[in-house]
Amino acid sequence: MIKLDLKMALSAIVFLSHLVGCSSYTDLPAGTVLSVEDTPVISSEVINVEPIVADEKPAHDYRVGSGDVLYVNVQGVPEMGSPVMNSSSKIQGNRIDGEGNIHLPLVGSVHIAGQTVSEVEATLRTVFSLYLNEPWVVVEVAEYHSQPIYLIGQFRNSGTVYMERPLTLLQGISEGGGLLDTANLSSARLVRGDKTMPVDLYALLNGGSSSQNVWLQSGDTIYVPDDKNLNVFVFGAVDRPGPVSMPNGQLTLPQALASAEIDDIRGHGRYIRIIRSHSPVRGELLVVDLDATLRGRALPFVLKEGDIVYVPRSKVGNWNEAIEEILPSLQLVSAMLAPFVQIEYLSDNN
User: What are phi and psi of 215, to 5 degrees?
Assistant: First the structure.
């Protein structure tokens, strides 16, 4: 059994981690210094997420929907079409309501959501033919509002953009004026509905990976966090579970455990499990022997932004058991976690 004063031991490790690869052994003569090069990692497993299936290019013709404003011109019978503001001759148009209907004088409500402009013209010709002989109808989209994409975070122009044509992920980012220098691409993500999609924005923008340049869908959110507030997350047998900040983006495992106030490393708490996200589609499962660092046999393990550190409270046989134990904690802070963790462990498919 390991019986150490954890606060003193971890504080010592935090100090020793600033020394250049050296640790002192108390059972050696005073002044003896040994070089330490061993790693405390005792197992590592790479996990790859199934990539998003490349979809075909959407049809180019825009399909109207709720919120769009259409200008309807009925030749020779302007009073049956869209109104025009007399003061400026500006087209006012008719907005499609929440049920997908457009409301026009005389003919009333007509359902047109999901139709192309040509199909809307054909639908209205059929409706107007009840009142007119061979009506000539022209329809234009005056305002696009039915197919939003949301650009959140480190965009030059963040906010809501309405698609007027099919857009790829790269085109969607361009609609936001590009990204700021403070963008953290490693944690950037594409969210569709309530799911984080397996798309790697870093590989797209820095590696030119065209396979990541997927087609956007109405309602998609592109979220790009900043690189200022970097954290790791510590759960399990600690008194202060949750995020631990990384000053200047640097933090070792002993430092993180000291901040989270680890309870005890006797027995099961010695072997620390770490979930690491390399990208939204690739992660790594690590088991680290904390005792090796505390006894000076290995260098302190260096954490990376987004690492999830789990200190077991009881014996854990494999990673499936470990994930089952840690899952409730992950769900509490799901919005803060790296995309890989959200996709692999918090998706409805798992």
Answer: -80, 135
